[in-house]
Automatic annotation (TrEMBL):
It comes from the Bacteria. This is Aminopeptidase. InterPro entries: PA4642-like. It comes from Allohahella marinimesophila. The lineage of its organism: Bacteria, Pseudomonadati, Pseudomonadota, Gammaproteobacteria, Oceanospirillales.
Amino acid sequence: MSGPSQPKVTDEVWDDERVRSFLNLKPYDETDEDYHALQNAYEYMRADDFRRFVKFFQTAGRNLHAKNLNGETLLQRIESHEAASDYRDILREATNSA
């Protein structure tokens, strides 16, 4: 199974198994596991895959408000990223529906 260590391919369609595999990622430092999983999903997934991931993440009872070592949630961290508007919308929708 390929996972987050594979090169990024922007037009590849990911199956649910691969998307869910990001739930198992563990940080190498003291970063919160939930934040680490969200951050990696954001960095490696297309918006449609990220939307599916966030649903799996919530179903697993994970924390969308998890913070990095700087005390920021993923949503706070990506507020200024120009290309992140779809990801911000997904996180806002998920937060509001929780």
